[in-house]
Amino acid sequence: MDERRLDGNATAGVLAEIFTFEMTTARTACVHCGATGEVGAQMAYVSEIGTVVRCASCNNALIRVARQDDGGRYWLDLRGVKYLQLEEHL
Ligand SMILES: [Zn+2]
User: Fold this and answer.
1) How close is the Cα of 72 to the center of ligand 1, in Å?
2) Ligand 1 center from residue 70 Cα (angstroms)
3) 80 in helix, strand or coil?
4) Segments making up each domain of the chain, as ranges
5) pLDDT at 35 (0 to 100)
6) Centroid of ligand 1 to alpha carbon of 36 (angstroms)
7) Is the pLDDT of residue 70 over 70?
8) In DSSP terms, which residues pair with 64 in a beta bridge?
9) What is the structure's pLDDT at 71?
10) Three-state secondary structure along 16-79?
11) Residue-level pLDDT at 78
12) Rounded to the nearest whole angstrom, what is the distance from the C-alpha of residue 81 to the centroid of ligand 1?
């Protein structure tokens, strides 16, 4: 499987399909180590089966996103984050 390791800003497109907020600037806290930071500052692993955002401090899987090929259905696993703090940009 071809997987590319990028910074968290690589998740902007797929997360924008689900959330209406700019998600790469959302602050997150890691369930495993407690580190906080923007989604865009974490590590993103992108492959044809989905995207995994991993904590830049401890490598815990924060966010997993998979999209069904025939469209319209997403799986979103947020169990690696304590919270996502979103800010509305007006
Ligand atoms: Zn962590």
Assistant:
1) 31
2) 33
3) coil
4) 5-85
5) 98
6) 8
7) yes
8) 52, 77
9) 67
10) HHHCCCCHHHCEEEECCCCCEEEHHHCEEEEECCEEEEECCCCCCEEEEEEECCCCCCEEEECC
11) 96
12) 9
